[in-house]
Write a structure and sequence with these properties.
The chain is built from nine helices and seven strands, in the order αββαααββααββαααβ. The chain is mainly alpha-helical and 223 residues long. α1 runs antiparallel to α3 and α3 crosses α4. 31% of the residues are buried.
């Protein structure tokens, strides 16, 4: 039997409402959130104070929590400094600014790599964690919930890898996001190669004789 406390149970619903209200087609309305930050601040407070360590929760429950926490804290960092041109314009955006997640202090990098990916080494996470830049996989307008999480991660990965701008095929040449360069080892470990990983989800598949290149990552703010 799995037990959930009431605040944790409803966190996903509150996050769902937040993303639904402020995210549209991958773009975040940071200006509106800055004017009305109460919902965001309440979610950040919940991320800090929630304690699942002694609760009997499923792996998907914890995995979902960390995914949503990451995306919410990214938005928080932007809103606190808005207006900005993009995340790289903020010193320490990923590796310096610290947040409290379930009582532990950590940066976004530590949350992503040292916590979430360390516990759940799933390369599909690279397509649901969004870094506030236009070059990132588009942020969805809903929260990731424990029920049906695996199917949702697969569906979202498939959606992203079939975006014409994310993987660009033109005149026999293929250019892919820098994400596949930065996290190459994750994809190779999962599928043997970057191309093999992509071809699990992309239709039509990239042909074997096509070499992969990359295009410049767009670090402009996803607003």
């Amino acid at each position: 039997m799995i037990f959930f406390d009431a605040p944790a149970q409803s966190f996903f619903d509150r996050a769902d409402s937040f993303f639904s209200q402020y995210v549209d087609d991958g773009s975040v309305n940071y200006a509106m959130i800055r004017k009305e930050p109460r919902t965001l601040n309440a979610l950040v407070k919940e991320i800090a104070e929630l304690d699942l360590t002694n609760k009997r929760v499923t792996a998907d429950y914890l995995k979902s929590f960390y995914i949503n926490a990451y995306n919410i804290l990214v938005i928080k960092q932007v809103v606190d400094r808005y207006p900005i041109d993009g995340p790289l314009k903020v010193p320490g955006f990923f590796d310096g600014i610290r947040h409290t997640v379930m009582g532990q202090e950590m940066t976004l990098d530590e949350l992503e790599k040292g916590t979430l990916y360390k516990q759940f080494p799933d390369p599909r996470l690279h397509f649901v964690l969004v870094c506030a830049a236009k070059g990132c996989p588009p942020l969805v307008s809903y929260s990731y919930k424990p029920t049906g999480l695996d199917k949702l991660l697969t569906a979202r990965t498939r959606e992203v890898l079939n975006l014409d701008w994310f993987i660009r095929v033109n005149n026999g040449k293929v250019q892919v996001s820098k994400i596949f360069e930065w996290y190459k080892g994750d994809f190779e470990k999962d599928a043997g190669s970057v191309k093999a990983f992509i071809n699990q989800y992309r239709k039509p598949a990239i042909e074997e004789n096509m070499k992969l290149g990359s295009y410049e990552y767009d670090w402009a703010l996803n607003e």
